[in-house]
Design goal:
The protein is an alpha+beta fold. The protein is built from four helices and 19 strands. 27% of the residues lie in helices and 34% in strands. The chain has a six-stranded antiparallel barrel with strand order 2-9-12-11-10-13. Strands 6-5-3-8 form a four-stranded antiparallel beta sheet, with no helix packed on it.
Length: 395
């Protein structure tokens, strides 16, 4: 009997223990539930931004003059230092001037002779005019005297023109710089024979300050920019478009330039249009033929949306996507249309609105539809006036 009582007591105790455990489990219904993820967010806000386009291009001299002789002869001297700066009108070469000096002297003497003949023919006409009135000379003699005087006048004019031509040829024995600029290497040496208007240039002078930068832009981008300016999406940033340069080593050129014109013809092979900008080049840091990248200010977007790049990813289709924390604390996925990078930010054309909370930290912790908490107060990052590093469209 006593053994039966002990077994019954043990069973009751075990049942109470099991019931107690069950009760404890029931009292903590959410004990194994995963905690809500905390994420860093960026509050989307429109800003007035300067929209720019980065385009490849090459530099070109403002003026280029190929120096050629205008008279023939032997080069006696080279009067410049290769690679130096020269002024317009400075003599660069000396051509043997002996024959041209002789021609000048002969022309000068011929002019003196013609003027001497005119000195006798003029008074003779005056005397014959008086004599023909009293029939002292025949009318034919008077007419011959008048004709001889007119011929003497023509001889003077012809001799004067010949003297002027001789003087020009004599002056051309000094081959002068046609423009101011940096002179290149000489193609000939003293003792070489040159001919008037020969095909090969003796040397080349290039004006490097200011200097041109020719860049190419696709006709599609040019049309898109024009439409955005027309429909008010962009506003012209006053006057001529400002341009800055990035050199081949990645450094920024110190001087800024202005866009001069856009070509009126599209290259049928590439579909590109050439734009020309003008840059100051006081220290001659830019030389003709250098490869550069020009950053052209297209206009101002007064309602631009720029967001950190870490908040934008790509889906399997290659579309730009972003995760947004909505008002209910749920994560939403948005498909974006981007318009290029601006420093470390994406310029977003559509997909985000002012006030949206873009998830930029902890993106890997959450999925669309999941609950999340903002780890810190939403704050818009100041991006006004940022300059883009690229304007390639990313759809």
């Amino acid at each position: 009997m006593e053994a039966l009582f002990c077994r019954t007591a043990a069973l009751i105790t075990a049942a109470v223990f099991v019931a107690g455990c069950s009760k404890t489990t029931t009292e903590a219904p959410g004990a194994n539930r995963a905690p809500v993820a905390e994420v860093g967010v960026f509050k989307v806000a429109p800003e007035a931004l300067r929209i720019t386009t980065e385009l490849p291009g090459r530099t070109g001299a403002f003026q280029v003059a190929e120096v050629r002789p205008q008279v023939s002869g032997l080069i006696q001297k080279r009067l410049f230092v290769e690679g130096a700066d020269v002024k317009a009108g400075v003599a660069l070469y000396q051509i043997d001037a002996a024959s041209y000096q002789a021609s000048y002297n002969a022309a000068k003497a011929a002019l003196a002779k013609a003027r001497a003949n005119l000195m006798t023919s003029g008074p003779k006409v005056a005397r014959y005019k008086e004599l023909v009135a009293i029939e002292g000379v025949s009318r034919q003699d008077y007419d011959d005297a008048v004709a001889a005087n007119e011929q003497a006048k023509a001889d003077v004019e012809s001799a004067a023109a010949a003297l002027e031509q001789a003087a020009i040829n004599l002056r051309y024995t000094h081959v002068d710089a046609p423009i101011s600029g940096r002179i290149g290497r000489s193609a000939i040496t003293p003792g070489a024979l040159v001919t008037a208007n020969q095909a090969g240039a003796l040397t080349t002078v290039q004006q490097l300050d200011p200097i041109y930068v020719d860049v190419t832009q696709s006709s599609e981008d040019l049309l898109r920019l024009k439409r955005e300016l027309e429909n008010g999406g962009l506003k012209q940033a006053g006057g001529q478009a400002r341009v800055t340069l990035l050199l081949s080593d990645g450094s920024k050129y110190a001087e800024s330039g202005k866009l001069q014109f856009s070509d009126v013809t599209v290259d049928p092979g590439t579909g590109n249009v050439t734009l020309r900008a003008l840059f100051p080049n006081p220290r001659h840091d830019l030389l003709p033929g250098m490869f550069v990248r020009a950053v052209v200010e297209s206009g101002v977007n007064e309602q631009a949306i720029a967001v950190p790049q870490q908040g934008v990813t790509r889906n399997a289709k290659g579309q730009a996507t972003a995760l947004v924390l909505n008002k209910e604390g749920k994560v939403e996925q948005r498909v974006l249309v981007t318009g290029g990078t601006m420093g470390d930010k994406w310029l977003v054309k559509s997909g985000l609105n002012a006030g949206d909370l873009l998830i930029v930290e902890g993106v890997q912790k959450v999925k669309p539809g999941a609950a999340a908490n903002a780890a810190k107060p939403a704050a818009a990052v100041a991006v006004g006036g940022a300059m883009p590093s690229s304007a390639k469209s990313a759809q």
